[in-house]
Specification:
155 residues, alpha+beta, elongated
C-alpha cells in the first residue's frame, strides 16, 4: 500500500502497522581535483557501473563532516592527499540503483600522497577537461564536470 502526503510525495506504507518507509537520500562527498587543465577521475571497481569513470567520491560515514568524507574518499580511491579549496556544488543523484544520493562536491589541490588506484578504483587517470571519457558513471558527475568547464570558459 502507498499513500501521498501533503506535498504529493507517494511513500510505501505497511497496511498492518501504518509504518511509512521514507526513501531519503544518502549524502556523499567528493573532490574535483584539477591540475594543468586535467581532472582526476577513477575507474569504478564495483557495480553499479563497474568499469566506468567517475569523480573520486563516496558515501559519508556516521560522524563525518562532508569535508572529511571528500578528503578521505579521494585518498582511499587515488592515494592523493588534498586540501579543499571550496564548495563547488551540490547535486541530486537519481541514477544509482542502490540509493538516492546527494553529492556534495568540493574543489581541492593536491598536497601529497602517491597517485595509485585503490579501494573502489581499478585505475585512475588525469583527463583533459575537453577530452573526458564517454563512460562517465553518474549523471551528477557529468553535470558537475560540464558546469566546471562552463565556469572556466566564463573566467
Amino acid at each position: 500500500m502507498s499513500t501521498a502526503d501533503d506535498h504529493g510525495m507517494v511513500r510505501p506504507v505497511c497496511p498492518s502497522c501504518g509504518y511509512v518507509w521514507y526513501r531519503n537520500p544518502v549524502p556523499a562527498a567528493g573532490v574535483l581535483l584539477v591540475a594543468d587543465g586535467r581532472v582526476l577521475l577513477v575507474k569504478r571497481r564495483w557495480e553499479p557501473r563497474a568499469g566506468d569513470w567517475c569523480l573520486p567520491a563516496g558515501f559519508m560515514e556516521a560522524g563525518e563532516r562532508p569535508e572529511q568524507t571528500a578528503v578521505r574518499e579521494l585518498q582511499e580511491e587515488t592515494g592523493v592527499i588534498a586540501r579543499l579549496t571550496g564548495l563547488f556544488g551540490v547535486y541530486a543523484g537519481f541514477d544509482d540503483p542502490r540509493v538516492r544520493a546527494v553529492l556534495i562536491l568540493y574543489t581541492g589541490i593536491a598536497t601529497g600522497g602517491e597517485a595509485r588506484a585503490g579501494d573502489d578504483a581499478v585505475e585512475l587517470a588525469w583527463f583533459p577537461l575537453d577530452a573526458l571519457p564517454a563512460e562517465l558513471a553518474f549523471a551528477s558527475h557529468r553535470q558537475a564536470l560540464a558546469e566546471f568547464r562552463e565556469r572556466l570558459a566564463r573566467a
